[in-house]
Amino acid sequence: MTETKVMLDTNILIDAVVSSRPEHHAAIDLFSLCVDRRVRGCVLASSLKDFYYICRRYIPEPDPRGAAIRVFLEILDVVPLDRDACELALDLPEPDLEDAMVLAAARLSDVDIICSRDRRAFGEGGIPSMTAAQVLSAMGC
């Protein structure tokens, strides 16, 4: 049986680290599936950058954000956002370019599910979009 490949959107990374976020526990459980290799988690490098920038308001200095990114790099595959993905993103029906880039990279990397709390994103992309809780449910957890 092959692993389900799940692209994690930036908001899922933030949910995993910031305990006050509404989907914190589901995100933590999803990361546990990645650690156990029941799910093959992946992420764009740009999502790691965005995570770092956004989490400055949640996580005080000195910089534990870098520690979180190191953990993400140990657990997740980094999917390329290369020229092909950028060109594909421009042709996708996704209205938000950043979401289109996630979708394009997911398509080119044979991702099965995009995990995001953004319910408006990825609707017409051909890859199911689910919240962390929905992914857990789909995996029988």
What is the highest CATH level, the class?
Alpha Beta
The CATH architecture would be 3-Layer(aba) Sandwich
In CATH, the homologous superfamily goes by the name 5'-nuclease
Number of helices: 7
Q: Summarize model confidence as the mean pLDDT.
A: 90
User: What distance lies between the first and last C-alpha atoms, to the nearest angstrom?
Assistant: 17 Å
Elements, N to C (H/E): EHHEHHEHHEEH
What is the helix content?
40-55%
Radius of gyration: 14 Å
Q: Main sheet?
A: 5 strands, parallel
Strand content: 5-15%
**Which stretches of 5+ consecutive residues score pLDDT under 50?**
none
Principal-axis shape equals: globular
Domain unit count = 1
Strands of the largest sheet, in order across it? 3-2-1-4-5
Total strands: 5
Helix/strand class: alpha/beta
Could you please say which CATH topology applies here? Rossmann fold
Report on the structure:
- The two termini are about 15 Å apart.
- The protein has a single domain, classed as 5'-nuclease (Rossmann fold, 3-Layer(aba) Sandwich), CATH 3.40.50.1010.
- With about 140 residues, the chain is α/β, with parallel strands linked by helices.
- The model has no long low-confidence stretch (mean pLDDT about 90).
- Helix content is about 50%, strand content about 15%.
- The chain has a 5-stranded parallel sheet with strand order 3-2-1-4-5, sandwiched between helices.
- It has 7 helices and 5 strands; from the N terminus they run βααβααβααββα.
- GO terms for molecular function: hydrolase activity; metal ion binding; nuclease activity.
